[in-house]
Amino acid sequence: MTPSEIWQPLTRELARWLQAGRTADFWLRDDDAIEPTAALDRLLAMTATYQAPVALAVIPAWTGAPLAERLARENHVTVAVHGWSHENHAPQGEKKQELGHHRPRDIVLAELSQGRARLQRLHAGRFAPMLVPPWNRIDADLLPHLAGIGFSALSVFGAPGPAPIRMLNSTVDIMDWRGNRGGRDHAALISEIVAQLELAFRGEGGPVGLLSHHLVHDEVAWSFLERLFEVTAASGACRWRPVGELLA
Question: Which GO terms describe its biological process (predicted)?
């Protein structure tokens, strides 16, 4: 199958949106930022070229002024809170989790509060009080307490369910974590995006939330992102939206 044939289902779906006079919403969350790197520069340049806002989930414990200074000239970036230190506290044999039930709740909440305050101070002009749990996992017992420590939204992965806090979830992960740990097959990703657009067209779904991890992208992942930006920009039926708009 040629690249144009692979992308045809998305092109066709977006043409349907355009013909109906409707606009499909997309947003991008990128996890694990700590400091300026060549990979981050590549992500920022690509998203700026296509005017695609990006929500960077930053790990508070390991970041500092260098990242804040690098992002100061990027008007299309929002910073969210990626847990505290991205450390696994689950015992061997369980799925990795920093924000689980394995430690006293007060300790976990204190770390999250410290992380929120630190990132808000470092990135005052671009900070969003949105929590992005490492590995997209969080103990449900913590959710009622997040607003009390300054969070207004939570972002994990998958269709959002009932929660005592606003949810803005990523819904399409471009990485193949269980396989080669590189970018996923483009045709499979396009199929997922089209399925979500079909739901949204019927009023049964929200924005398509892309999830990326710039530090571990291979060329399969990078090429998918760039081609997706090209296709959506050319369609006349898409907009990439910043987190602040989606949470307003």
Answer: carbohydrate metabolic process
CA distance 230 to 154: 29
For 174, the domain range is 25-137+148-246
Question: Has residue 129 been placed in a domain?
Answer: yes
Span 207-234, pLDDT tens digits: 999 999 999 999 999 999 999 999 999 9
Domain of 57: which CATH number?
Answer: 3.20.20.370
Question: CB of 243 within 8 A of CB of 204?
Answer: no
Q: Classify burial at 144, counting beta carbons within 10 Å of its beta carbon; exposed 0-12, middle 13-18, buried 19 or more.
A: exposed
What average pLDDT score do residues 166-172 get?
A: 97
Q: Is 5 within a domain? A: no
For 159, the token pair is: 């269709």
Q: Tell me what pLDDT residue 140 has.
A: 95
Instruction: Provide the pLDDT confidence category of residue 187 given band limits of 50, 70 and 90.
Output: very high
